[in-house]
Design brief:
heterotrimer, A mainly alpha (414), B alpha/beta (252), C mainly alpha (343), B: 252 residues, alpha/beta, Rossmann fold, six-stranded mixed beta sheet, 9 helices, 39% helix, globular, C: 343 residues, mainly alpha, two-stranded antiparallel sheet, 15 helices, 69% helix
Chain lengths: 414, 252, 343
């Protein structure tokens, strides 16, 4: 089905199941219980899971397959966001054209930046992409944020193309020529898909549990599934194989009559377009775009996600994005009071000791946990969480095989 | 007129004249060996043939077309394949995938954005790759990681990858360097078999005289960047100049 | 004219910091072949050595003041500084005032140990791994180091003043015969520039004139051959890493009065220092120093109002722009060797 092998189809179905049932799966604890703070099933966070999932899936097509480590992918995220915002401002609040422009613009940027950066490899490539992204950031932050309004003073370019530090926002004066300039109540309209507002949501109460189903989340989720499906197809295609060959041995590839340049550039542009799509979706979920989205730490974040999950694996980047976003939003909320209530059953001295030991790693210190986990992964698990789970899986299999041994001795070794 | 014509090729590196006025003609469907002591310029010459280096003077033509100024992948697409001194394969890929890549290169040219259809659905390429692997006795290793193969098998795979592109000229750079005797003999047998069965010209750079004399139809002796003599193996064996320049020590 | 001189002077202190960090990066890269993304964190740790040392010097205890009471009628207390108790009032006050320069004595052993521990404990295991892995693991380490600092010192910048005597400004204009009060330059920045020059000279002299330096330079050129000579190059490289860490740390110590240290200052400098290294030429020590000063001054010149009026925002992008142009037209940088890190 879908032109996939059984194994890949199962993976796709697994991810589809997770995505569609996420509002349930991520809300396992009843409202008001002590554990409710671990619930991640609210639309805002779930949207971030899938949007950063798309970003990381795209990054993985470049880094995981070709081994070219870009430290500037956030530039495309930003370009996507700004493009989508301009589509909202000029034409209307439908998200489809906005995403279309986001993908197209980031693709164009990726062609230019990729063409230049890919003339070098190794660390030079990383530095070049970093330099380009920081330049884009600086441009968005200041240069493109100067007043460019013409004499007719519509106010559209009052804060330039990017809006500078405060970011690009929707206003009531935006023309929106294909849609309503204001809602009936005189407010700024919100992004929608043919009338379905992205922020609309229904709640389902089951006993103590509350599940929220948001249109925006399901829209992003479906797009992520499409993006994931496409990445499976790319991984299994001759193109994907060539990209892995680029990583493995460029010399042999050249002497096999293949030109590595267009292959890597195509991978760069595809992953740039994925980033643009993610950026556009961010703007569609929350119509605001700021320059900090292009800062190099944002590029670093997607690197962390991809490596943590498992670079070069299909599902790794999605897992990595989920893990990091979960930590960022949930782990960071735990404060020392909460820790004290957890360990209240212990004698006082021990309680304080344990809380003191855990405290640096949670709450505002979650970055420390992230850094340590990341280092451990790079040192011991180059294949990321995916390799980790495979190793655990194999351990259990071996154990089973050991148990079965007496009956299986007649089998040949292979 | 040979399939490969090298005329007046010279190359300097700074103050060092690596090649000076090399003339060479490789006849179609022959096996031409280039020998010479270390530093004679064999590798420089080879690199000029495949686009890795551009000579300062002279011309290199393959089937009447100049190869100079073309990038390596273009030269390869013209029909010249190269086997390296240490086997250059895609170590992170499976043996079958290693084989598939040249088959795709043969079918689709130097770049094709074939990003949607699955590799396993390309029956023609799959069949060709499997066929090549069977020919080379590598079929049962097809799911192996190429990096984990023995050195001899890596060499076999590399040669198979080159042949899959159906080149008209196969360049080999010391294909048996660092090999055990048994592996060397296997490689010689393999190359002999290729020579007999296929419509192919072979140019080989080699140190090992045993290899050279069992394979070559013609031999060029290179010394200090210029060809000393060119003749058949029998004549080369007895040639006084060659003995002096190259075989000197072993002849005494 | 005056404005240009002023901007060149302004560029010097930033350029000094770039040059010192880039020098350390290049030492590590050239000797060990490792791309160290944690080098900015070392600069930051150096700055926090100064903070720590000042905190130590200003440790005090409270003793009741027999005569006075505060406005509620409770007995009031005096803050008594330990250093003043131990070394006498005047000497103690002097030490507190000179906390930043004195931190150098504290920072050198601390930074060398941090460097050596880093190399032995982590970097050593990554010599044979691809450069991408080295970048990633040191990037992770940088995050960990800066988070540890943030945990102990908080997220806000900590003002760390220079000694009293250096707090004023020097009127360069008057000294050079221009109008007074046009080219004013803080004394401490002059000190910083001089300090950077001394450190750079010391590193070069060390590499040039000592046997140790000679072996290291030989190792930079051809590691295998030196290894074959039976010289234990690994141990020397460990020491080299310690020295590079100390150079970055000292750059950080002395930078604290210019910019109050915060936990992410290392990352801010790292990105630019990498650009500096690449522009200077990967693996070239003089290149790193030259590019550091050049880019520092260029950045400063680009922020002149006349230039900004001409090309808006050029000050924000100039360094990156220069880096891109250099990388594309002169791939090996200003003074680099060919083929370094090209795979």
């Amino acid at each position: 089905m879908f032109g996939l092998e059984k194994k890949d189809l199962r993976l796709l179905m697994f991810v589809a199941g997770l995505t569609l049932l996420a509002p349930f799966l991520l809300n396992p604890f009843p409202e008001g219980s002590a554990m409710a703070q671990f619930n991640a099933g609210y639309p805002d966070l779930m949207q971030r899971f899938v949007i950063f999932g798309i970003f990381a899936i795209g990054f993985n097509i470049l880094f995981g397959l070709t081994g070219y480590l870009s430290f500037g992918h956030a530039a495309f995220l930003g370009v996507g966001s700004y493009s989508a915002m301009w589509m909202f401002k000029l034409f209307g609040m439908n998200v489809i054209p906005a995403l279309g422009l986001a993908i197209a613009m980031s693709g164009l940027f990726a062609i230019v930046i990729g063409y230049v950066s890919l003339r070098r490899s190794g660390i030079y490539f990383s530095i070049l992409t970093l330099a380009f992204a920081m330049m884009s950031y600086a441009l968005a932050y200041s240069v493109l944020a100067t007043d460019m309004d013409g004499p007719d003073k519509q106010g559209l370019l009052q804060k330039g193309l990017t809006g500078g530090e405060t970011g690009l926002q929707l206003t009531l004066q935006d023309p929106r020529i294909l849609g309503a300039q204001t809602t009936e109540s005189g407010n700024i309209p919100v992004p929608s898909l043919f009338g379905v507002e992205m922020r609309s949501a229904t709640e389902l109460n089951l006993g103590d549990w509350v599940f929220t189903f948001s249109a925006g989340y399901y829209f992003s989720g479906v797009i992520m599934l499409l993006a994931f499906y496409l990445s499976i197809r790319i991984f299994r295609s001759p193109f994907g194989m060539m990209l892995r060959a680029v990583k493995s041995n460029q010399q042999r590839l050249t002497y096999t009559g293949l030109n590595p340049k267009p292959y890597t550039l195509a991978a760069f542009v595809i992953s740039g377009m994925y980033a643009g799509l993610a950026g556009g979706l961010m703007a569609a979920m929350d119509p605001l775009a700021g320059p900090e989205r292009m800062f190099w730490t944002a590029s670093g974040e997607v690197v962390l996600m991809t490596i943590l999950g498992g670079a070069g694996t299909l599902i790794g980047p999605v897992l990595g994005a989920g893990a990091i976003k979960y930590m960022e939003n949930i782990l960071s909320k735990i404060n020392s009071d909460i820790l004290h209530t957890w360990f209240a059953f212990l004698p006082d001295g021990l309680e304080n000791l344990i809380v003191g030991m855990i405290y640096p790693f949670i709450g505002k210190g979650w970055h420390l946990t992230l850094g340590i986990i990341f280092m451990l992964v790079v040192i011991f698990l180059p294949g990321g969480l995916v390799e980790g789970s495979q190793r655990i899986g194999r351990m259990f299999k071996r154990k089973q095989a050991d148990d079965d041994k007496p009956t299986a001795t007649t089998e040949p070794a292979e | 007129m040979g399939i490969l014509e090298v005329k007046g090729v010279g190359k300097r590196f700074g103050g060092l004249q690596a090649l000076g006025d090399v003339n060479l003609s490789v006849a179609e469907n022959s096996c031409h060996a280039i020998i010479g002591p270390n530093g004679a310029g064999k590798s420089t010459l080879l690199n000029c043939l495949i686009g890795k280096l551009i000579p300062d003077t002279g011309s290199v033509t393959f089937e009447g077309q100049s190869v100079l100024g073309r990038s390596p992948h273009e030269i390869n697409q013209m029909g010249i394949s190269r086997v390296f001194q240490t086997p250059e394969i895609f170590a992170d890929l499976s043996v079958l995938e290693n084989m598939l890549i040249p088959c795709f290169a043969k079918r689709d040219g130097s770049f094709e954005l074939n990003a949607i259809s699955a590799v396993r659905n390309q029956k023609d390429v799959q069949d060709k790759a499997m066929h090549m692997l069977e020919d080379m006795n590598l079929a049962d290793k097809r799911h192996m990681h190429a990096a984990s193969m023995s050195r001899g098998d890596k060499r076999r795979l590399e040669i198979a990858m080159c042949l899959a592109q159906e080149p008209r000229l196969l360049l080999l750079d010391e294909p048996t360097a660092g090999m055990a005797r048994a592996d060397t003999n296997n490689t010689i047998d393999l190359l002999k078999q290729i020579k007999e069965e296929r419509d192919i010209t072979i140019a080989i750079i080699e140190h090992d005289m045993h290899v050279v004399f069992s394979l070559a139809d013609r031999i060029t002796v290179l010394a200090q960047g210029t060809p000393l003599v060119e003749d058949t193996p029998d004549k080369i064996k007895g040639h006084p100049k060659v003995r002096e320049a190259y075989l000197g020590e072993s002849a005494d | 004219m005056e404005a240009i001189i002023l901007q060149i002077l302004n560029g010097l202190d930033k350029g000094s910091a770039y040059a010192l960090i880039a020098l350390g990066l290049t030492l590590i890269f050239g000797t060990l072949g490792v791309v160290n993304f944690a080098h900015g964190a070392l600069f930051m740790m150096g700055a926090f050595c100064a903070v720590t040392f000042s905190n130590l010097l200003t440790l005090s205890y409270q003793s009741p003041e027999p005569t006075g009471t505060d406005f509620l009628g409770n007995p009031s207390y005096d803050d008594l500084f330990y250093v003043q108790q131990w070394f006498g009032e005047a000497a103690g006050a002097w030490m507190m005032d000179w906390a930043v320069p004195l931190s150098i004595l504290f920072a050198i052993p601390v930074m060398i140990s941090i460097g050596v521990i880093m190399e032995r404990g982590l970097i050593k295991h990554f010599y044979k791994r691809p450069h991408a892995d080295q970048i990633l693991v040191t990037f992770g380490l940088a995050i960990v180091l800066q988070e540890v600092i943030k945990y102990y010192y908080g997220a806000n910048p900590i003002p760390t003043p220079a000694p009293e005597v250096f707090r004023g400004s020097f009127d360069f204009g008057a000294a050079l015969g221009f109008d007074p009060n046009v080219i004013i330059y803080p004394y401490w920045r002059l000190v910083y520039f001089g300090f950077a020059a001394i450190i750079i000279a010391a590193v070069f002299a060390f590499l040039q004139f000592t046997t140790f330096g000679m072996v290291v330079r030989a190792g930079m050129a051809d590691r295998e051959t030196v290894g074959l000579l039976g010289i234990n190059i690994d141990r020397r490289f460990t020491i080299m890493f310690g020295i590079a860490a100390a150079v970055a740390g000292l750059a950080g110590v002395m930078y604290t009065p210019i910019n109050s240290p915060n936990y992410h200052m290392g990352m801010d400098f790292l990105v630019l220092s990498f650009v500096v290294v690449v522009v200077g030429g990967m693996g070239s020590l003089p290149g790193a120093v030259l590019a550091g000063f050049l880019l520092g001054i260029l950045e400063s010149l680009a922020s002149m109002s006349a230039v900004i009026d001409l090309i808006p925002g050029i000050n924000q992008v100039i360094i990156y722009l220069v880096a891109i142009i250099i990388l594309l037209t002169r791939p090996r940088g200003l003074m680099g060797r060919k083929g370094v890190m090209e795979e």
